[in-house]
């Protein structure tokens, strides 16, 4: 086998999370219309204002067109053939379980297999987990401990019931319901997701983490996450995602909103490993996500770190609006595509306040017949005196049949602003591999080392516990026949 | 230690491009060899083929290391046996520190050879000694492999790696070219300290100058894919004075001889 072939087979690492869990689902019709939306709201026992929120979003959505500007090709999902609500049949009273004993053991086992034990004593110290299975939050750990610090960490459905004033104030305030086609769809049918509230002067005592699992073949996943950090508070949040291997594409359209008030700091990390389809591009998740953070207060900071390895199509631009003076926006990204995967991902950094600073570090790795695009916007408003942006977009190609593209958009309306953009493209060379092999490493280790070196600046931004996981994930993704 | 027998090699992608046309060479432990010759004569190719580069195909002949053919072995398997190549153009691996690369390399080889692996602290101490051989500072270990290194630093780094990995047979592919006289002395000094009676070193070079600092036991001249002449250090001096032309005739005679 030539080194090129070895390289190409190596990036075809097996997907280890492709199993399905056998659970019984509540019946729910497919398709979307006002009645369906009312039914979702009814099943979730939502107050009228949430139902209205959904219906208004639906109204907007019906008038919108799916965007065609991303550099990806796919068949538009048949929106009438998606199931917009999916919940497992509950034991007992049908409420969210208070203790693990009430959770379907199959589901506990599923999370266990994914390496996310839900029993608090089995977990990594210092990490609280919200487990979202299809459209519903199954269980949230360490609630009590967090409660002592005043931190609210629960599913958004619970937050609507228990903290309606907070949800009402902030939901839709960063990503308005009609923001874009998929955000509008999400606003109409959102199922579950996480809610985090960190009160004033509080440093959240634990890492918070949500683990999203799509299991149901029929259903789409439309989670919605809302994180609010009050003045002088801090939180670090991580989401992980996996899904079984199905022949059909599944739709995942999430909305994430972050709000940072004065001196607040939110660090949001993602390790996305949805099923990406087979070698021929059959199956896999359509990952159409709107993530946006709002540095509302002065001196606030929002930082996105993402390791995107899965999904058939990724369409995602975690953004920061820096409204407060001296606020900081950061985006650190590793996006790996292989086989027929397509990714169009990047960020938007909107500088509104004075002396706002943003950093963008994007590392794209393409292999197989995949296509990987970086799309980033840096916008500097007239009053953003002294704003600074620094962007680096590096692409790495493995093999001869993949593509990498960079689409930077820079708009500066303030002459005192400083914007720097650097881009590079490199190829994992046979020479590099030969060099490392000559030093005694096998091909897998050589590629893994090269790729990890390439992504280092981003990986070091991940919380420690997850950096190891991400490291392994890259290894698996890029490992193959030899290992 | 190394026996190269009637080695014929072509470029894998273009079999009509024959580079080595019957090389014979025997290297015993404790010996230092120099291979000289004009550009394009096949010196660098020979080093790469011994190390297992897949861009070349062996069409005839054999390479034996410790009596066994290594032709079917991958480059990493050859490295595990103790074969080292100091690259003419050391490759950059951004984001990977020298320390990281070398500890992983050292431990992989140690494991294969049944020796004990070193933990990060032990390795740091071990590597610190080797750094002195090539007169490099400790910070060198934390820099990305060859990234942003000057030409001289890259070459020194190759010899440093050689010192750390402690190979049995080292091919040094034009390690001397591009070095100023001070750097050349440092590199030569490093090589001299590594070479001992259990190891062998093969220097591929254009210039006689490094041989002032490292005395070879044998000097070979490669011309057109073959070793045209072998001798001792005096041969190198003669080459420096007279160039390669006087040898070309000899080589072409044997080419014709083969065709007949």
Automatic annotation (TrEMBL), chain A:
Classification via InterPro entries: Fe-S_cluster_assembly_SufBD, SUF_FeS_clus_asmbl_SufB, SUF_FeS_clus_asmbl_SufBD_core, SUF_FeS_clus_asmbl_SufBD_sf, SufBD_N
Its GO biological process annotations read:
iron-sulfur cluster assembly
Alphabetized Pfam families for the sequence: SUFBD_core, SufBD_N
SUF system FeS cluster assembly SufBD N-terminal domain segment(s): 147-203
**What sequence ranges are listed for the domain SUF system FeS cluster assembly SufBD core?**
212-454
The family note in this entry says: Belongs to the iron-sulfur cluster assembly SufBD family.
NCBIfam families, sorted: PRK11814.1, sufB
Q: Can you say what this protein is called? A: Iron-regulated ABC transporter membrane component SufB
Naturally occurring in which organism (per UniProt): Fodinibius roseus
UniProtKB/TrEMBL annotation, chain B:
| The entry's keywords | ATP-binding, Nucleotide-binding
The UniProt entry, under InterPro entries, shows: AAA+_ATPase, ABC_transporter-like_ATP-bd, FeS-cluster_ATPase_SufC, P-loop_NTPase
The protein's matches in Gene3D superfamilies, at most eight in alphabetical order, are given as:
P-loop containing nucleotide triphosphate hydrolases
Molecular function terms from GO? ATP binding; ATP hydrolysis activity
* ATP-binding is among the record's keywords: yes
Q: Where is the ABC transporter domain?
A: 2-249
Return the PANTHER family for the record.
ABC TRANSPORTER I FAMILY MEMBER 6, CHLOROPLASTIC
Q: This protein is called what?
A: Iron-regulated ABC transporter ATPase subunit SufC
- Source organism: Fodinibius roseus
Print the organism lineage: Bacteria, Pseudomonadati, Balneolota, Balneolia, Balneolales
């Amino acid at each position: 086998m030539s080194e090129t072939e070895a390289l190409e087979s190596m990036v075809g690492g097996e997907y280890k999370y492709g199993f399905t869990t056998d659970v019984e689902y509540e019946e729910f019709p497919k398709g979307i219309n006002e009645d369906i939306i009312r039914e979702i709201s009814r099943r979730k026992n939502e107050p009228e204002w949430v139902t209205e929120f959904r219906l208004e979003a639906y109204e907007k959505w019906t008038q919108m067109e799916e965007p065609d500007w991303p550099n990806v090709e796919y068949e538009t999902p048949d929106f009438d053939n998606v199931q917009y609500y999916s919940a497992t049949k509950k034991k007992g009273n049908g409420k969210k379980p208070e203790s693990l004993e009430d959770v379907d053991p199959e589901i506990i086992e599923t999370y266990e297999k994914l390496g996310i034990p839900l029993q608090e004593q089995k977990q990594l110290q210092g990490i609280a987990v919200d487990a979202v299975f299809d459209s519903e939050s199954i269980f949230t750990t360490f609630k009590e401990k967090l409660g002592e610090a005043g931190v609210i960490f629960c599913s958004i459905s619970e937050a609507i019931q228990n903290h309606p004033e907070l949800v009402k104030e902030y939901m839709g305030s960063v990503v308005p319901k009609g923001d874009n086609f998929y955000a509008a769809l999400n606003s109409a049918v959102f199922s579950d997701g996480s809610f985090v509230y960190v009160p004033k002067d509080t440093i959240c005592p634990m890492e918070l983490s949500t683990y999203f699992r799509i299991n149901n073949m029929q259903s789409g996943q439309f989670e919605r996450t809302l994180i609010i950090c009050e003045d002088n508070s801090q939180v670090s949040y991580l989401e992980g995602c996996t899904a079984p291997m199905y022949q059909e594409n599944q739709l995942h359209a999430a909305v994430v909103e972050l709000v940072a008030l004065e001196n607040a700091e939110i660090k949001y990390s993602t390790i996305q490993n949805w099923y990406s389809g087979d070698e021929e591009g059959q199956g896999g998740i359509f990952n159409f996500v709107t993530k946006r953070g709002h540095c509302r207060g002065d001196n606030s900071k929002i930082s996105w770190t993402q390791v995107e390895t899965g999904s058939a199509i990724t369409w995602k631009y975690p953004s920061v609006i820096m409204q407060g003076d001296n606020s900081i926006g950061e985006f650190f990204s590793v996006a790996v595509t292989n086989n027929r995967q397509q990714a169009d991902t990047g960020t938007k950094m909107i500088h509104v306040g004075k002396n706002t600073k943003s950093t963008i570090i994007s590392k794209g790795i393409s292999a197989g017949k995949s296509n990987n695009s970086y799309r980033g916007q840096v916008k500097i408003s007239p009053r953003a005196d002294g704003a600074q942006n620094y962007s680096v977009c590096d692409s790495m190609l493995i093999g001869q049949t993949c593509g990498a593209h960079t689409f930077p958009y820079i708009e500066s309306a303030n002459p005192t602003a400083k914007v720097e953009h650097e881009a590079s493209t490199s190829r994992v060379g046979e020479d590099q591999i030969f060099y490392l092999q000559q030093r005694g490493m096998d091909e897998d280790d050589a590629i893994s080392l090269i790729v990890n070196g390439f992504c280092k600046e981003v990986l070091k931004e991940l919380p420690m516990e997850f950096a190891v996981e991400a490291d392994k994930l890259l290894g698996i993704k890029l490992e193959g026949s030899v290992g | 230690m190394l026996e190269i027998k009637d080695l014929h090699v072509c470029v894998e992608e273009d079999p009509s491009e024959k580079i080595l046309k019957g090389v014979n060479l025997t290297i015993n432990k404790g010996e230092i060899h120099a291979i000289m010759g004009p550009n394009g004569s096949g010196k660098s190719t020979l080093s790469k083929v011994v190390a297992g580069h897949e861009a070349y195909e062996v069409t005839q002949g054999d390479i034996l290391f410790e009596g066994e053919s290594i032709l079917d072995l991958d480059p990493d398997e050859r490295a595990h046996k103790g074969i080292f190549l100091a690259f003419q153009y050391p490759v950059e691996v951004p984001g990977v520190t020298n320390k990281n690369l070398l500890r992983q390399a050292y431990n992989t080889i140690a494991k294969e050879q049944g020796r004990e692996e070193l933990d990060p602290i032990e390795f740091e101490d071990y590597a610190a000694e080797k750094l002195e051989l090539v007169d490099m500072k400790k910070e060198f270990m934390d820099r990305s492999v060859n990234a942003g290194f000057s030409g001289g630093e890259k070459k020194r780094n190759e010899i440093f790696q050689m010192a750390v990995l402690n190979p049995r047979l080292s091919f040094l592919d034009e390690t001397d070219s591009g070095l100023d006289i001070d750097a050349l002395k440092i590199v030569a000094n490093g090589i001299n300290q590594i070479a001992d009676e259990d190891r062998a070193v093969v220097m591929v070079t254009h210039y006689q100058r490094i041989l002032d600092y490292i005395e070879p036991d044998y000097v070979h001249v490669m011309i057109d894919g073959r070793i045209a002449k072998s001798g001792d250090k005096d041969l190198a001096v003669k080459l420096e004075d007279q160039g390669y032309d006087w040898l070309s005739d000899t080589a072409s005679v044997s080419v014709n001889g083969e065709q007949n």
